[in-house]
Design brief:
Layout (H helix, E strand, L loop, with lengths): L4 H11 L4 H15 L6 H10 L8 E5 L5 H8 L4 E6 L2 H9 L5 E4 L14 E6 L13 H6 L1 E12 L5 H16 L3 E14 L12 E11 L9
Parallel strand pairs: 1-2, 1-4, 2-3, 4-5
Antiparallel strand pairs: 5-7, 6-7
Helix pairs in contact: 1-2, 2-5, 3-4
GO molecular function, one term: S-adenosylmethionine-dependent methyltransferase activity
Protein name: MET27 protein
Length: 228
Amino acid sequence: MVLPAAVRDRVAAVHRGSALPERLRLYDGWAARYEQYRAPHLAAASLAFAFPAPPAGARLLDVACGTGLVARELHRRGFRSLHGVDGSAGMLERARSTGLYQELRLCVLGREPLPAPAEHYDAVTLVGALGEGQVPSTVLPELLRVTKPGGFLCLTTRSNPSNLRYKAGLEAELEQLERSGAWQKLLAQEVEYWERATTEEESTQGTGYISGVVYLYQKCPVPPLEED
């Protein structure tokens, strides 16, 4: 089973190489239906499982927050101090209607910095937007910048055929940051039935779904200065 034709066309238009303003316009129009086709609970569950303390007081940034699906899952797991950013005004309007965010800001990630000071958040999520034609993998240092030392970063990407080149580049960037000591990997979990496929060719072994990956990293603490 695949997506209905109208929704499939919207998804395909967003994921292929259309210009950024056009992709954002499509997201604006898609916002009302967007919630039917994502699985953000997988990322929220991974983050909540790893979080070392009661999360109610933890400040969390939901990057590319969409309509607020990740926030809903995080709220169910005890997170209360939620901030969100997204490049689509339509998505932000839907997210605002949930009442789950303390702050929402418009930000086109990859073209402008996140509207937050350095080391501001206990955790950062970026669910669903790391993909071909969407957010470039070069944003990873910016996500790290706003994360506190010892804080967590939860990221996802898809494993469908049209995203494999992007995924390979993303994982090279992830590994490079780990080798440099910027963060340490806690989880890289491949998940089947991640979301509905847009075409039969994209689906995993004819299931009608694609798989995806949840990554969880912890930002390394700043090493103490050595005394002379």
